[in-house]
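Chain X:
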Amino acid sequence: MTLPNCDTLLLERDGGVLHVTLNRPDSRNAMSLAMVGELRAVLAAVRDDRGVRAIVLRGAGGHFCAGGDIKDMAGARAAGPDAYAALNRAFGGLLEEAQAQPQVLVAVLEGAVLGGGFGLACVSDIAIAVADAQFGLPETSLGILPAQIAPFVVKRIGLTQARRLALTAARFDGDQALRLGLVHFSEADAAALGQRLAECLEQVHRCAPGANAATKALLLATESEALGPLLDAAARQFADAVTGAEGAEGTMAFVQKRKPNWAQ
């Protein structure tokens, strides 16, 4: 696996974990078109690499992401509506790809988690926030729409809460994000945040990478596929897994009372 060169991201591989840090701290890691492109390239580069078990996404400088980049939007203004639509849809493409990424996507949420940052939190498999993080969908207060984010917010927290948050641009903290089901953990401080991240990554490490990828795809398919055909396909996948290398290793490890090779 060769990772792309990035100007807006910091990349660090630590064993089976790829740490991706949004690195535009002067703008609270606002999501530029360049950053969108680099994130999509990184996700594509590791998509088929089962040696990467988890991707940890966070922001530099104490903030996760404060939303879209105003400079990009100003530049699109001169080119007209089509340029705005293309700029907006590119971020939606990133969310689609991140949602479907085979690896476990972990979002570590500090400071501003607004607009596009909120959207990224909604497509994570595990979301860990610090209690004083600030979440919100500010778009309507700026006279615009959370156009690409909205479907992912609805799927994450439900239509009723999404309507309230999007139509009031209300801000809320990590504890409220936990109550809404937006995040899985709200931690008191940075030290507790780091401890929780290490715990979650250790749990991911126990799970077979191929089984995790197939399970994630199965869970996502429940939102769009009919139940009968979905269960038919799942039965075939189960049979392939049981008779495959991971299934054989997992069964043998259980009998021999040892850790399977992916958890060594």
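Chain Y:
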Amino acid sequence: MGVVSAAMRFGGINLVQEQWLQNTWSEVLALGAYALLILYFIKSAMKK
């Protein structure tokens, strides 16, 4: 996906919204999603 993203940037396509990156809630949302992913991996590992 990194190669696709780099190719899009090179081609002049930028899907990043700067106002979202400067918003504090974007960090909170990312941290929450990361915590949910960690909890999922822990529960999945404990199951098997």
